[in-house]
Specification:
With about 325 residues, the chain is α/β, with parallel strands linked by helices. Helices cover about 35% and strands about 15% of the residues. The protein has one domain: Alpha-Beta Barrel (TIM Barrel). The chain starts with a strand and ends in a 19-residue tail after the last helix. Strand 6 and strand 7 form a beta hairpin. Helix 1 packs across helix 2, helix 4 crosses helix 5 and helix 7 packs antiparallel against helix 9. It is globular. The strands form 3 sheets. Strands 3-4-5-8-9-10-11-12 form an 8-stranded parallel barrel, surrounded by 5 helices. Strands 1-2 form a two-stranded antiparallel sheet.
Length: about 325
């Protein structure tokens, strides 16, 4: 397993983090609790040291299951926990942004309790709350950092301007935007800003909600609360375009490296200047390809071939904007 140290901290973490949104069940069709715990334990056994979660993933379910897995693992110091604050859920199932001091202080205590720990290795503001000055949220995060409750401060889904304002009030160590072979918007602004300012990129969505898993087919149906029902990538005709691109990328991966599309997609994210790639999983067997991500790299010709494949197969690319929760502002 490749490791990296988050600049400005003493946190040394695996370059693959286990993402646990699906483990929470919400927007993923429910969860199997024992299977979820075993997934975390399997990832840890295979060298992953960083587990990423959030309160909103199943409205506490993901954090609780991660906490149970950590308790069974038995060595808190040997791993790192990353969670988030700033999203509030309501009785009707809706979710809105809330980056207020009161909300964050309440959330951090709830998260510590569910995770069974007295500190967090990385604590993110999940989404910027556009109703409040960024500086107000930053100040409470600075307090938590200064008192040692959180060891590294992060923001997720922030623009460069929002990160710059945040950073004037609080140290900023990690940014968590979406990034994968099919969603590359951060290359224009977020990634260059982070590289210039020494903020580590810990990106999510490496497999683009299954499109880059190598297992997605045209016949796949999405039911219940599955978030892909609202993702324009999974609607015709774009779905067919993205599947064609995935097929061509899989051919490239096997021809040049003898690797699966899944492994190729994870390696690509790391090759593109991301310090940490979050890989979501909900079953232990999904962790089997981990060892294949290490020990090889991509040359410039391969990266150029990726660009050519995407240009040829995806005439109308779309990003992950559909996932943004309401800001609470009229017209926003």
């Amino acid at each position: 397993m490749e490791l990296t140290t988050i600049a400005g901290t003493d946190r040394r973490v695996s370059r693959i983090a286990l993402g646990t949104w699906a483990i929470g069940g919400w927007m993923w069709g429910g969860t199997d609790e024992r299977q979820s715990i075993d997934t975390v334990l399997t990832a840890l056994a295979r060298g992953v040291t960083l587990i990423d979660t959030a309160p909103v993933y199943g409205f506490g379910t993901s954090e609780r299951l991660v906490g149970q897995a950590v308790a069974e693992f038995g060595d808190r110091a040997a791993l790192q926990l990353s969670t988030k604050a700033g999203l509030e859920w309501h009785d009707d199932g809706s979710v809105t942004r809330n980056g207020s001091r009161e909300r964050i202080l309440r959330e951090v205590e709830d998260s510590l309790g569910r995770l069974g720990t007295d500190y967090l290795d990385i604590y993110f503001v999940h989404w910027p709350d556009c109703r409040l000055p960024v500086e107000e949220t930053a100040m409470v995060m600075r307090e938590l950092h200064e008192q040692g409750t959180i060891k590294a401060v992060g923001v997720s889904n922030f623009t460069p301007d929002q990160m710059a304002r945040f950073r004037r009030e609080c140290p900023l160590h990690v940014a968590q935007p979406p990034y994968n072979l099919l969603e590359r918007g951060i290359e224009q602004d977020v990634a260059p800003w982070c590289h210039r300012h020494g903020v580590a990129l810990m990106t999510y969505g490496a497999l683009c909600r299954g499109l880059l898993s190598g297992k997605m087919t045209r016949e796949r149906e999405f039911t219940g609360d599955d978030l892909r029902q609202n993702d324009p990538k999974f609607q015709a005709p774009r779905f067919h375009h993205y599947l064609a691109a995935a097929g061509a990328l899989e051919g490239l991966a096997r021809e040049r490296f003898g690797q699966s599309l899944l492994v190729f997609a994870l390696r690509w994210v790391l090759e593109m200047g991301t310090e940490i790639a979050i890989w979501g999983g909900r079953r232990p067997e999904q962790m089997e390809p981990l060892q294949q991500v290490w020990g090889w790299s991509m040359d410039a010709a391969t990266l150029a071939a990726v660009d050519s494949i995407l240009a040829a197969h995806v005439p109308q690319p779309v990003g992950p904007e559909f996932m943004a929760p309401p800001t609470g502002l009229a017209g926003a």
